[in-house]
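Service request form, structural biology core

Requester: graduate student, group of Dr. S.
Request type: structure prediction, single chain
Budget code: on file
Notes: please return the result as structure tokens.

Sequence provided:
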Amino acid sequence: MTQQNGVTPIYILSGFLGSGKTTLLQKMISFLQEQHVKPAVIMNEIGEVNLDGMLVDAKVPMSEMLGGCICCTVREDLSTELSQLIENEQPDVIIIEATGVANPIDILDAVTELSLFMKLDIKPLITVVDTAYLNELYEAQSGKTYSLMMDQIRAATLLIMNKIDQIDDVRQAEMKQFLKRMNPHAHIIEAIKCEVDLTALLEGNFFASNGLDTSMVEQSNCACHNHCDHDHDHDHDHDHDHDHDHDHDHASHEHVTVYTHYFQKPVDSHAFEQLIKQLPREIYRAKGVLSFTDTSKRFLFQYAYRESDFMAITPQGEVADVAVFIGEHFDQQWISNELRKLEGLL
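Core staff response, request fulfilled:
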């Protein structure tokens, strides 16, 4: 679990948007700190702001890689980020949390390349599965989201079947059997809110061996092209009414749309919650930092699988009021108009 002979352990967390990766990351960080182990984090977001990073202890060294996924546009930056983290912070362990729309095979590939000239111990890849969402997609067994989720499942050495409380026992058993068929080599742990045995997870006790199956990396070296648009089409319609420069290129994932809204004014909390309840099914993830007119506190809100959560926070440094919506081909203008109505601008 900790650095030995100057070799830094690297854990990679994979899983689709809203699966619970950041929850697991928080638990891992807290556990490591209790063991007097110094963790560092690389957080990758396809959007322009890393709101999940606000949930990470401010004392934990963190590198943010925004505006793309590690497997394409920001991949070349990964070696720089890793080497700087190791040199400047000298962590005992590094955790990479990949964006939910990344193919983990490509991240493994990128990190494996780095291990050729950096002393890295690549730990078994962990994929957090949103069991309830998988259960829904399983009915159709088609679509790009389903395909990407399958890639994330097949790449894992450890599968965490998260959110099992959201489906009945029969469906749980079916989903577990399905995961075993998709990845017969992975160890499967059932969980609610990513409550797992962290000692076993971090020390490799779940596995027969701690080795990485590099054959997967070699076979799937170019899997990124199935999910990433390397022509840099501008799928991301951002709110251009504000003084934010969005002119630089962003990698967009073919079936994934990101809309970022910067608020000019606080909004009513009840009206905002009502809007979140009305979000179309095409939006499967949303998060943001908000100021409300009816309370002095600021809130981090998260939305996944049609469930929302609000947490009072005190952001570190200057943080704008912002909301990020991630989904497939949704009506961004509708969301923009609804949010501007809440602000009293329409």
